[in-house]
Amino acid sequence: AAAAATFEALSAGGHERAESAVMNAYFSLADRVSDPDELCLCLLEAMGAALNRHLGPTAQAAVVADAAERLPDPPEPSAADPVSAAFDRLAAVGLVEGYERAGDAGPASEAGAPDHATVRISGYALSPTDGRVATLPAALEVCRRDPRGRIAGTALLAAAGDPTGSDWWVRVDPQAPSLDGGPSTASVPGRN
Fold first, then answer.
1. Which of 105, 118, 130 is nearest to 157 (CA)?
2. Hey, which end of the chain has fewer CB within 10 Å, N or C?
3. pTM summary value
4. Phi, psi of 173 (to 5 degrees)
5. Residue 113 and residue 41: Cα distance in Å, rounded?
6. String of b and e for 163-187 (b: at least 16 CB within 10 Å)?
7. What does the alpha-carbon distance between residue 90 and residue 133 come to, in Å, rounded to a whole number?
8. How far is CA 99 from CA 7, 39, 91, 119, in A?
9. Could you give the CA distance from residue 143 to residue 151 in angstroms, rounded to a whole number?
10. What is the pLDDT of residues 11-23, one digit of tens each?
11. Which residues pair with 129 in a beta bridge?
């Protein structure tokens, strides 16, 4: 659903270069990947990369907002804590094996939950490509559950996580869609 909604948003927004890149990736992947779940994961990785490569942060945020609107309403009402609700959903569909929130500090939203969060995710199903990890599913889910529809920026934290693995410390900020270049991907921090 996330991949379809994002593709529709790209098409509706007139982002032809990104749309073509996604279509080319889909045709290439469909020839090589037979498992539908694996194909979807690969497509989400390719979409994140295409958005990052062809669209600036503002255009990425517009695509994410449009795609979030195209997704069905979540079964639960808008969340007072959209970050936890988003990661609950990502865990439920198998994009993460688990997550935990670190001690959040900072200004609280009107609903009382902190506006930003540090989250440790384990077993992230999407892999790094060209030094970046697709964060598009998290951005979509946070936007979808945020009562104000804000686009979350995401950054991977330095010295936290395995740049070749699936466990990461992530900074999620619903007020900073341009964080680390836009909401579709995040840079893998350099290792010393």
1. 118
2. C
3. 0.86
4. -130, 105
5. 30
6. eeebebbbbbbbebbebbbbbbbbe
7. 15
8. 28, 24, 8, 7
9. 5
10. 999 999 999 999 9
11. 132
